């Protein structure tokens, strides 16, 4: 199973607390674990499975029971659809045929990744097993989107939601993995609270470059003649849509600095953000954020890219001077 890279963060989540509480009282027969973060659902499944078979009952990750889970060597643990592909009826038939086989340990667990990609026929085929599985069997359905699960399936499962993690939690989790402060801060800001997405961003150099370019653009915009220089920012030319997302994050960080909130960056980047905050009023920053949002909408409708860029830069410069600190 997928090793839990964010083990400590997941252990502290409400979702893990709820599953742990049920383990103490006796696990139910079916759960639906909901999160748009596929990788974190897999890690969560690993942690739950380890706890189910751990000698100490706490997922120590060291005992024989935990090792059999981590090494995919536990005959009572079944993982379906790790690749997150469409699940057809035959795969569910195969799963159901194994459910009735008595578990060697007395407890059997099925973990279905991206269960929301099951066809309607496959979900209907699973209904009876979800409602009345053999004794000692628990089925966990992972879902990125609840709307992909039939109401009849939902009604037979206890729903557990994995947290959308706050920025500080994500930042600390990435730092724990060895990420540098700036990479962790950018990832935590851009990941929408998803740990799996944060890890990808943190180890993708282009995000750090885009963030630095976003600060460069804000630093350069002082007078009308500076617009030409701002237009040469590399990230603006190499991927306007993605750059605007990061620019919006940078502006929110400048707003945080303006309001005296802590910045999760190294000293050099934090200093750049604080200097930009001195050049903009809060009103100007709010209007800048709105301008970026409108520019993103225009790009989504394939409006002339160069015209959108020019309009955005002029608007940022205009509100900066009209609403001075």
How would a crystallographer describe the biggest sheet? 5 strands, parallel
- Fraction of residues in β-strands: 5-15%
The average pLDDT value, as a whole number, equals 94
Helices, by number, come to: 17
Q: Helical percent range?
A: 55-70%
Q: Numbering strands along the chain, what is their spatial order in the largest sheet? A: 2-3-4-1-5
* General shape: elongated
Structural class: alpha/beta
Number of strands: 5
Give the helices and strands as they follow along the chain. Answer: HHEHHEHEHEHEHHHHHHHHHH
Unreliable segments of 5+ consecutive residues: none
The first-to-last residue Cα distance is 54 Å
How would you characterize the overall build of this protein?
By secondary structure, the protein is an alpha/beta fold. 59% of the residues lie in helices and 8% in strands. The longest helix has 19 residues, at 240-258. The mean pLDDT is 94.
